[in-house]
Design brief:
Blueprint: H1 3-24, H2 27-30, H3 35-50, H4 54-71, H5 73-77, H6 85-88, E1 98-103, E2 109-114
Antiparallel strand pairs: 1-2
Helix pairs in contact: 3-4
Length: 118
């Protein structure tokens, strides 16, 4: 496998994990899956982090996130793929299959499942 392929897979996994955090925080449900609202909230976070209150906001959010990960049974069992892997101290196991959901430009939902070699 080429280096660029490995890097692309690594980036894709990272983006999927970040999306999982959005779902786990119930942002999708709370916003009615309104992408503009989600994006606006993320922009507000970025502005906050760049302000003079950035360090205190980062510390507060990090503590709250760590507390939520620690309280989640899925994180403790190692089944939560959104948890930071370096914090779990578990061996990385590749899932048997993955499902990827995508929405086409015409709004059609498509789900594809990939096996180990997919």
């Amino acid at each position: 496998m080429h280096t660029w392929q490995l890097e692309r897979r690594k980036r894709t996994r990272h983006l999927i994990e970040l999306g999982g955090l959005v779902v786990k925080a119930r942002i999708v449900d709370l916003t009615g899956d309104d992408r503009a609202t989600v994006f606006g909230a993320l922009l507000w976070m970025a502005d906050k982090l760049q302000s003079d209150q950035g360090e205190s906001a980062r510390a507060l959010w990090a503590a709250k996130g760590k507390q939520a990960f620690d309280a989640d049974p899925a994180t403790r069992k190692g089944t939560d793929l959104t948890a930071p892997m370096h914090d779990l101290n578990l061996p990385r196991v590749r899932p048997r299959s993955r499902a990827i959901e995508a929405v086409t430009a015409r709004g059609e939902q498509r789900i594809r499942t990939f096996g180990q070699n997919g």
